[in-house]
Amino acid sequence: MTASWDQLPSRPTTPAELAAALEKTGYLADDGIATAGFLALRMHRPLFCEGEPGTGKTSLAQALAQVLDVPLIRLQCHEGIDASQALYDWDFPRQLLHLRALEAASDGKLDADAAEASLYTERFLLARPLLRALQESPCVLLVDEVDRADDEFEAFLLEVLSEHAVSVPELGEIRAEAPPLAVLTSNRTREVHDALKRRCLYHWLEHPDLGREVAILRSRLPGIGGRLAEQVAMAVRRLREMELLKPPGVAESLDWAEALLALGKTELDAETAAVTLGAVLKYREDADRAQNAGLAALLAS
Amino acid sequence: MADPLSGLVGFARTLRHAGLACDPQRVQAYAAAVEQLDVSSPVELYWAGRLTLCSEPDDLARYDAAFTAWFGQRISVSGSERPVMPQPQRSKMAALVSPPDGQPGVESSDDEELRVFASDIEVLHHRDIADLTVAERDHLRQLMTLLKLDPPRRTALRARPARRGRLDGHRTVRAMLATGGEPARLRHVRPADRPRRVVLLIDVSGSMSPYADALLRFAHAVVRRGPSTEVFTVGTRLTRVSRQLRLRDPEEALAAAGRAVPDFHGGTRLGETLRAFLDRWGQRGIARQAIVVVFSDGWERGEADLLGEQMARLRRLAKAVLWVNPHAGRAGYAPVQSGIAAALPFVDVLLAGHSLATLRRLWSHVRDPQLSARTEVSHA
To answer: Is residue A225 within 8 Å of A266, Cβ to Cβ?
Structure first.
């Protein structure tokens, strides 16, 4: 069943190998992330990633798909998401048109059973992300922000992820040749059910350390100088230590560095920081707090 | 190691004793993970366990400690000792029909006994919880278990079949199929509704101690009816007790919550604990569009400014913020304490909560936040 994953030429054999491959795509993984990704791949278990926003949960899935050279299929969860939005739906307008066409062609002698059978075929099946992942596997399936969905949806998700199959009443069972590599992310707005977590590998992502953040900045923004990258990483680190409503994540430090590059800066000074602070801090209260603490202190090396 | 598996299982058992949920399925995953990795590398060994045996951030520190103990210093932990928890007495839900102990003059006929008892219940509804005798408290507990506190509702994203509303393609096509493609009656859907989340923040500091037990029981009654309800205790620190209160039996739930809360009868640092709540839970989603009820007397020992700031934050997140102060039911009460004065501008409605009757009235405000808006003026 798992033959197709094993046949992938890019399949890593140790966590270190995976880390090296991820690094080539611009995702700098630490030991934890590399081991988590490696085990998820080897054990065919979904990877459940939790952590502060901006620690690289979603981009991990993107990087994994790139490394393994398989498609990335994304399911964004939200409150009230249900099976027809996640799994499949029927294309009703096209079914109606088809029915009308059949009727017109049959001169009023429409065979109801045959008509129904012709309506519920793959032609009118709209595959939503979960079904597409099963059909297109091997692939990386990103179930983003699973904590936003409802509990009933979790139970449904659990079933799909552990069986790697769904049954469409009108069509029968659709089973994945190889289980998709599933990455679930959560921001902990809600406690996710233990039964779902139990099926998964659990990884809590922290903000990267200073060295890694500098490396991330330099690999993602090739034009950035070493000095500026270090200054941005250091300042963001200090901001994270302050009691902010929303401590900046890696995405914010990337935004900030990009903003500085766009302004043609090679160094970060208090004045530049003051006008570009909006790239890192997204609350007025946070900006005030940073200003009061003194932007110069933030930048002092 | 002679048999690596027994070592791993022993480690998992240590973790279980440390409070992690290492069930057999997780241990199995752990063993499978170790098989995939290089066991001679401590780093890989560490991650194999952390990825398979932990399930929430609170687990990580305990895992780290256990890992050092088990693999680093090779301290053998005997697995048979398990602290024996005293079993809390199960409550009898139907105990209401038996009159409380020490009730004088109930030796008359059953009929009269019932009548006396019914009037007692009526009185008990309006008595200040702090002034109750032990027997009356016992009785109140039983009354609490009978409260039916259905959560407020909000519009859901999903729709349900209805006579009017948006066209339902799925059911319309089905109906047309049944008649061989003849135009059928159009089917419609309307937005359904779902329970709106209720968040209870219960002050368990010293000045609130006469009410803490009753309020937690009230919270238990709320949690039983509304599965998405979240309950936190505040005081000197923030404790989430939602999980403990989900136990069906009120006595077990209360005992579990009691064990979880470290700061019963301590001081009050509402501002700080509220900030902890908003940072860790509220802003991420728990308080968003929820009905938040703060049970506190507002005797703030910390900075009142901080409390005001955090209340403003809470107000922006929540659908409605209700403040319940047990002392507000007393004659001559005025909201002048530093804490409550700072919080008041951000509160939709200030209510008393000193008796069963006032707690029930509170619930009608929770069920209908518009009601709060209408009465806001009279309290401001």
So the answer is: yes
Contact between A43 and B156 using a beta-carbon 8 Å cutoff: no
Q: How confident is the model at residue B266 (pLDDT cuts 50, 70, 90)?
A: confident
Entry pTM: 0.66
SS3 string, A38-56, reads: HHHHHHCCCEEEEECCCCC
For residue A298, the model assigns a pLDDT of 80
Own/partner pairs for A32-37, CB < 8 Å, 24+ apart? A32/A203, A32/A205, A32/B47, A32/B50, A32/B51, A33/A60, A33/A203, A33/A205, A35/B37, A35/B43, A35/B44, A35/B47, A35/B48, A35/B51, A36/A201, A36/A203, A36/B47, A36/B51, A37/A64
Say if CB B173 and CB B214 are below 8 A apart. no
> Nearest residue on chain A to B32, judged by CA atoms?
A43
A180-222 pLDDT, tens digit each = 999 999 988 777 888 888 889 999 988 888 888 999 899 888 8
A115 vs B158: CB contact, 8 Å cut-off? no
SS3 state at B245 = helix
Give the separation between CA B31 and CA A193, rounded to whole angstroms.
Answer: 23
Using CB atoms and an 8 Å cut-off, which of residues 150-179 of chain B contact chain A?
Answer: 156-158, 169-170, 172-173, 176-178
CA distance B175 to B170: 9
| ipTM associated with this complex | 0.75
Nearest residue on chain A to B155, alpha-carbon basis = A80
